[in-house]
Design the sequence.
């Protein structure tokens, strides 16, 4: 399809393991966002990529979290040494341009469970 | 102070009722605002943008009050299908989300 694609849709991992979450944005979208949503909570901003600019990493909760965006397209969010509090739905969104009223489209998310 | 704060709800209303709720934002220079809708265990989807002069989309009306730094959403003639969490979003290059207002429409 033409929407934002995230994989895997579900991930169960043991505490202390590393995980990689993938986001394929809509083709041509220059802006890409990662958010985290814990059960019953709002969306917590993690990181923002816009074109070739340096990413805004101000939302990353610790140095165990990192993200890359290769070639201005696919993005990978990596969580090292996972902890139980990392359990959440990780949502990726993309938009065409940083301008007035540009809609952001979300993927269906990766549900991460750390056991 | 959080960047975006919303009425927490929940709002539990009968079909056909009108329900309205607000969202305040902290950055007076913010230019771009949205309402998103999120159904249970689904991703957020755009409901409507919010324009300076206010705007309607069918039964939904959004208003912006820059002086008081809040936006509002009003739903008229509520339908069962309107049951969802409504997220206020401020676009200051990164999208800042409110925690959401839960609306339940009962038969």
Sequence:
């Amino acid at each position: 399809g033409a929407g934002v694609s995230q994989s895997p849709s579900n991930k169960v991992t043991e505490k202390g393991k590393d995980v990689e979450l993938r986001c394929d944005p809509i083709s041509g979208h220059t802006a890409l966002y990662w958010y985290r949503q814990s059960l019953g909570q709002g969306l917590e901003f993690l990181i923002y990529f816009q074109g070739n600019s340096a990413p805004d990493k101000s939302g990353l909760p610790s140095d165990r979290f990192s993200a890359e965006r290769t070639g201005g397209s696919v993005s990978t969010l990596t969580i090292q040494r996972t902890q139980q509090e990392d359990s959440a739905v990780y949502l990726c969104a993309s938009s065409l341009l940083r301008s007035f009223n540009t809609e952001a489209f979300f993927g269906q998310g990766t549900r991460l469970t750390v056991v | 102070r959080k960047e975006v704060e919303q009425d927490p709800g929940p709002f539990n209303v009968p079909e056909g009722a009108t329900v309205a709720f607000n969202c305040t934002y902290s950055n007076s220079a913010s230019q771009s605002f949205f309402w998103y809708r999120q159904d249970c265990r689904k991703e957020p989807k755009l409901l409507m943008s919010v324009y300076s002069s206010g705007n309607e989309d069918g039964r939904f009306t959004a208003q912006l009050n820059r002086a008081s730094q809040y936006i509002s959403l009003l739903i008229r003639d509520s339908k069962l299908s309107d049951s969802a969490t409504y997220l206020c979003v401020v676009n200051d290059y990164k999208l800042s989300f409110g925690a959401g207002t839960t609306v339940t429409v009962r038969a």
